[in-house]
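TEACHING EXERCISE
Course module: macromolecular assemblies
Task: Read the component lines below, then compare them to the predicted structure of the full complex.
Student: A.B.
Group: 4
Components provided:
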Amino acid sequence: MKKIVGKHVVIGALTVLAGYAAAAHADIVGNPKAGQGKVAMCIGCHGIPDYRTAYPEVYHVPILGGQNMQYLINALKAYRKGDRHFGTMHAIASSLSDQDIADIAAYYSSQTAATQNNPEK
Amino acid sequence: MNQPHKATRAARPVGTLFRTVVAAGALAGAAAHPAFAADAEHGKSLVGSHNCAACHGPGLNQPISPEYPRLAGQHADYIFWALRQYQMGTGNPNLGRNNPIMQAQVQTLSESDLRDIAAYIESLPGSLVNRK
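Instructor-supplied answer key:
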């Protein structure tokens, strides 16, 4: 009897926790329109064809337009946390909220060959 | 007080030897990579043998999960650096990129293999676009 009650309590608790987790994710939805106004710090490098980094290695900064949204979200969060290493990206990502990151990722991932340059910039 | 000076003197012959070895290595390296030309055809065969398309999708342009990046047409020098960072992995806390799948994928590849893969990826037509 005790065992059964314990099991039910655990299942109930897990269900509630899973609900919270789902709700926390559902709150943040990226909006490409909002992202359009948040990429001022991005286009100084990623908006210039042929732009390259200087340190610790010289390479073209990656093309972002048309990239997968979840990949971009994970990348920005990893830079913010320090799991991915590039000084400038860490500094910029540290200034972004989860909502900013979702909007910026939505903005870049929605770009196609037909997309015009940002009219706000 | 004299200790650092002594240490420097003792280290001098070793330093000279080190410089000679580095210079010889640089010359050998230059000979092995004329003009750093990457071989995209070799890159293509490596991409096939390492099953990159299993995750990054057909033409490396349609990843099977939104968490994986679209690669086709991405800058070769960026791809090379990303692959190098995966090779460093957690062993280099200042530069390494930590992803268990990618770390395993690149472990046996040489730097010239990585350059070849990167050149092949850049040559692929894809849906990445550069817009402000």
